[in-house]
Design goal:
Shape: elongated
Strand content: 15-25%
CATH architecture of the largest domain: Beta Barrel
Radius of gyration: 25 Å
CATH topology of the largest domain: Elongation Factor Tu (Ef-tu), domain 3
Order of helices and strands: HHEEEEEEHHH
Largest sheet: 6 strands, antiparallel, barrel
Number of helices: 5
CATH class of the largest domain: Mainly Beta
Number of domains: 2
Number of strands: 6
Strand order of the largest sheet: 1-2-5-4-3-6
Length: 201
């Protein structure tokens, strides 16, 4: 209390406010992760990036449609172990370009095979596809899609399931309540000893 005035307690965010604030923040986080991956790549050695599996070079293209490009090793071999997965966001660069150099394009991994990686592009790069290329992984689309789907479900209101009673409490729409009867704890794993059962309880 200062000068005889009391500080007002701020009201909690409503569910709709939370969703409307968080959705653009997820977009910002995704862009920041991509930007960070690209800028971090500028300070890395190409050989070490390939060893970590976040970069693969020596590709050539095979057009699979308007927006799908299939990348194969110039040696025609099975691709070595890597960390690329479907829905990963990748950037395409000339094989000999520095790690921090501008990308020819940005896309999402569509399909993985032993000897090729297919990437979906919004805009197919017009230049630079006739020489050896490389792909650099910068983010994973699935993570952001799942978080956005969760926000959409929240905005619609959760009517069923274990979270249906919890969400109104979290957003200050309802006071928490105590169960009217004791709930007996029964562990899923019947092989737990007494100390583990007490710990979980």
């Amino acid at each position: 209390m200062e000068g005889g005035k009391t500080q007002k307690k701020s009201s909690p965010l409503s569910l709709q406010q939370f969703v409307s604030i968080t959705t653009p923040l997820l977009d910002l986080e995704k862009e920041a992760e991509i930007s960070s991956s690209i800028s971090t790549g500028a300070s890395r050695n190409l050989e070490s990036a390939q060893k970590k599996g976040s970069t693969y070079s020596q590709f050539e293209t095979g057009l699979m449609g308007k927006t799908l490009l299939e990348f194969q090793s110039t040696k025609g071999d099975v691709l070595p172990a890597h960390k690329f997965g479907t829905h990963d966001v990748v950037v395409l660069k000339p094989n000999k370009a520095d790690l921090g150099s501008p990308a020819l394009g940005q896309g999402v991994v569509y399909r993985l095979k032993d000897s090729s990686i297919t990437v979906a592009f919004d805009d197919i790069p017009e230049d630079g596809l006739n020489s050896p290329l490389r792909l650099e992984k910068v983010a994973n689309e699935v993570t952001y899609r799942r978080m956005k789907d969760a926000l959409i479900q929240l905005s619609k209101g959760v009517q069923k399931g274990p979270a249906s009673d919890l969400i109104p409490v979290l957003f200050g729409e309802r006071e928490p309540t105590v169960a009217k009867k004791d709930v007996k704890f029964t562990p899923f794993n019947s092989n737990l000893d007494h100390s583990q059962t007490v710990f979980y309880y």
